[in-house]
Amino acid sequence: MAEIIQRDGTWVFDGDTLRLTPGRDKNVSPLRSELGEVTVPLRALAGISFEQGKKSGRLRLRLRDGADPLLHATGGRLIEPHDPYQLIVESDRYGVAEYLVDEVRNALLLEEVPSGPVDAYLLAGPSVPLSVSAGDGTVSFDGERVRLEWKWQAEDAKSAGGPRVLPLPDITAVEWRPSAGLENGHLRFTVRGTPATVPPKYDRNAVELWGFRKDPLMALVAAAVQARLPHPSGAPFPEDPGPAEHAAASAPAPAPAPEDDHDALLRRLRELGELYRSGVLTDEEFTLAKQAVLRRM
Question: What gap in Å lies between CA 1 and CA 16, rounded to an integer?
Fold first, then answer.
């Protein structure tokens, strides 16, 4: 197991999963604090890196496209300090950070985890119910419907119609954008049969955001809704099976033929040697991966 504990948070890797827990330091963003612990399965990772600085460094995770509803809903616009996949590392813990990076990279090599996109979410969205007040409205989500209520600052085009309730089946997409420069941000829900052509300031399916501290919390609502929508890859939901398929599914699966762990590890060593000789692995990568295999033997 590899673990690094910092004021900014704690990352723990057990060989199969990375657990990212935000710290309690006053500088930790409200979004990370509200999101809480994030569990990242190894198969959701595309890579990990550590960047050293004079006073502090930074650990960064790169997730596979389509693995996380939060990253999809925010479109890559969730930057530090709100990004839960970054960790500030103090200079006296650089060695620990590098060890964690090596362990994760070795596991990715051994498990042969691809770095390409996935067709299903591998991380759970934020837990519900959720309610966030920012910009010109308050948005609540209970897992089945979104409710938008308007503040006194909202335009008459919104407040005149009263609260807005959007059943989840009516929502086809969700988007969160932070404010940038003189341009306000928004949280917008695309509703079936209602094209999003109205600016967020007047759109009753959107909350306009003005760049205040609570704006990033709206990204949690966006992610919770996104996690319950069809995956953006367009992979169809499985059809309901008939009686014959139900019977086949309930029948016990044949037990796989046992494989000697020692033989499997020897085969992996041969594969690593072939990758090294063909130039796919560098000297350092080959040495680290080989040591990880030998530790399992």
Answer: 10
Q: Which tokens is 122 given?
A: 């591998």
Q: CB neighbours of 13 closer than 8 A, spacing ≥ 6?
A: 1, 2, 3, 19, 100, 103, 104, 107
Q: Establish whether the linkage from the previous residue to 129 is cis, with ω within 30° of 0.
A: yes
d(CA 104, CA 292): 11
Quick check: pTM over 0.90?
no
Q: What angle do CA 85, 292, 282 make, to 5 degrees?
A: 80
Nearest of 24, 114, 10, 22 to residue 63 by alpha carbon: 114
**CA 146, CA 131: separation in Å to the nearest integer?**
10
pLDDT tens, residue by residue, 105-123: 999 999 999 999 999 999 9
Contact criterion met (CB below 8 Å) for 163 and 147: yes
